[in-house]
Structure formats: C-alpha cells, structure tokens
Write a structure and sequence with these properties.
- The complex is a heterodimer of chains A (238) and B (208).
- Chain A has 5 helices and 8 strands, in the order H-H-H-H-H-E-E-E-E-E-E-E-E.
- Chain A is of the alpha/beta class.
- Chain A has 3 domains: 55 residues; 36 residues; 102 residues, Immunoglobulin-like.
- In chain A, the strands form 2 sheets. Chain A has a 5-stranded mixed sheet, with no helix packed on it.
- In chain A, strand 4 and strand 5 form a beta hairpin.
- The longest helix of chain A is centred in the middle third of the chain and has 52 residues.
- Chain B is mostly helical and 208 residues long.
- Chain B is elongated.
- Classes of the chains: A alpha/beta (238), B mainly alpha (208).
C-alpha cells in the first residue's frame, strides 16, 4: 500500500494524471485513491490544473504577452485632443476667411458697379477742362512748328494745367515732362505720368515757378531717355 | 446516481492528510454481511465517484464509465453479501479488480458486436474537467506568473518536453521546477475555490 509520504516525494499524483506511472505503481496508487478521499481530491485538482494549463496553452495565454505600454493610452488621447483642437481652429479660421472673402467680394462688386456707372457717365460727357478757375494750355503736336500755346495765368492762380495731347500711336507706359525756359534752364520736371483715357497727359504746374515768358515742354519716355514730343508754351499774366 | 464530488474537503491542504477510511473497510464489510442496508448505501457513497473516475480514465466515455461503475458496485456488493471477499480490509483492491474485470468484459463485448467500426480517437480525460471555473482560475493564475514561468508550464504540461530541454529554453534550473509547479498549483487552487464561492450560475462542469 502506498503511503502519503511516498506519494508526495515521488510526485505520484502528477505522474498518474500525466500517465507516467508504471503498471505496478499505477495500480497501487489507484487502490490508494479508492481508499483515500484526500488523494482523490488531489487527483481531481491535478486533472483540472493540467486541463487548465493545456487550455491556456492552446488559447495562447501561456505565450509571453506583448509588453504593455501604459503610457500609450494617455498619449493617444492627448494626440487626439491636440488633433481635434487644431482641426477645430483650422476649420474656424477657414470659415472666417470664407466670410471675409465673401464680404470683400461684395465690396469689390459694389465698387466695380459704381466705377462702371461713373465711366459710363463720363463717356457720355465730353471733358470741359477749360472751365473753372484753373488756367489750361492744350498742347497738340499737330500745331505748326514755332507756334506755341498761350496760357494766361492770373496773378491769383496758384497752379495752371497743361493738357498734352499725345500721338495716338504712342505706347502706354511711364512718361515724364521737362519744362525749360527761354534760356534753356530747367524750370520743372514731372515724372511718373501716364496717358489718361483721352490719350493725353494732364499735368498741373505751380504758377509761381512760371513767370511770363516762353517755355519748352519736352515729353519724355523710356525712363527719360527718349523725347516723344516737344511743345512751346507762352505764359502771360493777367 | 452520485458523481465525482466537487473539490472541497482537503483541497486547500498542501500535504495529504491521512484517511480514516482505510480502517473502516472491515467494519463496513461486516455490516453489509450482517444485512445492514445502510452499510450498502455507505459503500455506494464511498466508492461511487472514485470508481466512476477510474472507469473514465480507462474508457474515456462518460456513458460507459457510468455503466461500469454501476456494474462494479453491484458485483462488489453481491460478492460481499455472498462472503466471497476473503480479506475485508482489502476492499479497495477488490473493487479495483472488479472494475478492471467489468471494463475487460465491456471491451470484449464491444469487440464482438462492433468489429468493423473504427473507434474515434478518445478525448483526453482532461476535457471532462475543463469548465468555466477552471478556465477562469487558470487565466488568473497565469496572469500572476512571470512570462518565463508561463512558458515553463506550457512546455511541461502541454508540449511535454523533457525537463532538460525546458531548462535549456527557459533557464529554469531543475531544482526550481518543483517549487514553481507547487506555487502555480497552489495559486490555481486558491483561484478555483474563490471563483467557486462566487459561482452562483452553476457553470462548473459535473462529471455525472
């Protein structure tokens, strides 16, 4: 008959469950189990344990699990929060930009409509540049050489204007004028001029610089290196 | 019909306690022979679950194990009453021999009646012990163990590798093997008992 000491020392219960006992030892142990409730309990417990380990092994529970990174969840949450905030700000700004653009578009449309109305009105109304208090000299290249244009400048006038009708074929671009007196001294230079819609240059000159006398007006193009026209102006006082 | 008792008495003890049953066999035999019907019931209660388990180990079929248990108990009781048992103190040995004889008879009978039928592979005996309680207990036990210890248990009980090979793979020395197994089994036992107390839905598998 087997003793409990022998069963403990030889791990008989485990070996029985794992079918590792020899015939004689197995039979002796089974006789013991029939007699001993405690050993029968231990046998059942070992059966359950081995069944459990085999189940866990088949289910993959016995494999070393991947190392858990406890910081991953908060990190993901933080990244997601940042992403949501950035997306929200971006969408809000996009919406604001769209509103601003729509507003600007409306403003520009209104200005365009107003400009078109003004242009239409101007097209039907010939310029009356001679009218008003501003003295005006209209310079035309078709005039005969040697004949200047006289402009009468009242003593009270602070300015007078030149209306220089350019050749219709002259190109657009930045133009300038240089005015010299009878002795060839440069009295005034004006740069950064552009043809207006009537194909002319309109220039205001300070009356104080132009005492009575004859003056030559050169229209310059090509950054001041090319003379596009030459006109004579006679300033007289009133 | 009684089945395998659920784990309870004696299960929390690491060492095996001595059993008083050994000394009671002769008295039990004498009472049965004197016509005490309660003694017959006592014999049934004592051996029923154990005989069922031993039969299941042999035939791996709950139905056959049930038949073998019943037939064995009937024959043992009949033998006692007919005073065919010469050594009453050796009742357990007599029960085991009777069980083996009944199993042998069953095999012979099956061989005669189903000679051409190829038997399906018998399931492992552990399948009859695997229930929700065992699964939950082993999962929690494994959760407590180090990865190396889990590897060891898998290699030892599932892959059934030699100890030397397991030691080479896991680095667990031979002298630590017994301690590791003992600790894992103890942890499993505690978990199983704890879960058994909270199991009110009866998810534990009964062998009968």
């Amino acid at each position: 008959m087997m003793t409990h000491e022998q069963i403990e020392a030889d791990e008989v219960i485990e070996r029985y469950v794992r079918h590792q006992l020899g015939e004689e030892e197995r039979r002796a142990f089974e006789e013991h189990v029939l007699d001993c409730g405690a050993c029968f309990e231990r046998v059942q417990e070992m059966e359950r344990f081995v069944a459990g380990v085999r189940y866990a092994s088949q289910a993959g529970l016995a494999a070393a699990p991947a190392r858990r990174r406890f910081w991953l969840a908060p990190a993901y949450a933080f990244a997601l929060s940042v992403l949501l905030i950035v997306s929200g700000v971006w969408i809000w700004r996009l919406h604001a930009s769209a509103s601003l653009l729509a507003s600007q578009k409306q403003t520009l449309a209104r200005e365009l409509a107003r400009s078109q109305a003004e242009l239409t009105a101007l097209a039907h109304q010939p310029p009356d540049l001679a009218a008003g208090p501003l003295p005006l000299a209209i310079l035309d290249a078709t005039r005969a050489a040697g004949l200047g244009t006289e402009v009468t400048v009242p003593s009270t006038a602070r300015e007078f204007a030149l209306w220089i009708q350019l050749d219709a074929e002259s190109k657009d671009g930045e133009l300038g004028i240089r005015v010299t007196d009878g002795s060839g001294r440069i009295v005034e230079t004006v740069e950064g001029l552009h043809k207006n819609r009537y194909g002319a240059l309109a220039v205001e000159l300070p009356a104080g610089k132009f005492p009575q006398g004859d003056y030559t007006v050169l229209v310059l193009g090509g950054n001041g290196h090319r003379v596009l026209g030459q006109y004579l102006v006679k300033v007289s006082a009133k | 019909m009684a089945g395998l008792p659920t784990m309870g008495e004696g299960a929390t003890r690491d060492s095996i306690p001595s059993s008083p049953e050994c000394t009671a066999d002769a008295d039990l035999v004498e009472r049965i022979q004197s016509g005490d019907t309660a003694a017959g019931e006592m014999l049934y209660r004592r051996y029923s679950a154990r005989l069922y388990y031993l039969a299941l180990v042999r035939v791996r079929s709950p139905q056959d194990a049930e038949d073998i248990r019943s037939e064995t108990l009937v024959r043992v009781l009949s033998a006692i009453r007919d005073r065919q048992l010469r050594t009453p103190a050796a009742l357990s040995g007599f029960c085991l021999r009777t069980l083996d004889y009944v199993v042998l008879e069953m095999y012979r009978k099956q061989k005669r009646t189903e000679p051409l039928i190829e038997d399906a592979p018998a399931p492992s005996i552990q399948e009859y012990f695997l229930d929700d309680g065992v699964k939950a207990a082993i999962e929690r036990t494994f959760a407590r163990l180090k990865p190396r210890e889990r590897d060891f248990l898998r290699m030892y009980y599932y892959d059934e590798l030699p100890k030397e090979e397991i030691a080479r793979r896991t680095g667990i020395a031979g002298e630590r093997v017994r301690l590791l197994k003992s600790r894992a089994l103890k942890s499993f036992r505690e978990m199983y008992l704890r879960l058994g107390k909270s199991d009110t839905k009866g998810h534990r598998k009964s062998l009968v």
